[in-house]
Hints:
The chain is α+β, with helices and mostly antiparallel strands. The protein is 29% helix and 31% strand. It has four helices and ten strands. The strands form four sheets. A three-stranded antiparallel β-sheet has the order 5-6-7, with helices on one face. A hairpin with a 4-residue loop joins β6 (50-55) and β7. The longest helix has 22 residues, at 102-123.
Amino acid sequence: MKIWIFSKKHGMNTSKNKIADIGSDDPLDKLIFEKGLRIKNVIIDEELDLIGIILNTGKILETKISLYPRLKNATEKDLQKWNLIGNGVGISWENLNENLSMKGFIQTVAINEMLEHLEASVISPRASA
């Protein structure tokens, strides 16, 4: 597996990008680094407390902005100043000193969806036979 490593110096991306061979059994790493899953676009709606990513597969993943303190406290103008990093494996808000990896975003979405599912089943458990 090849992973891009980006050098940062004084908060700026240098042009000395390297590729590292790293083997991983992690299914998300395989999707991202072997299968080429990438972020194509970012959707932000502060009023709805929503941040979404559009993947190169056409899938849309969304979660709450309020889960990320720096984004939660940012102005709408600052929220819109994002850039894709690592050829679409992450999002950066340089002016907010915030970076989100696609892997971390997927994990956050999955965990929150599962928690919502579990909470709903505790609130209204199925009748036992």
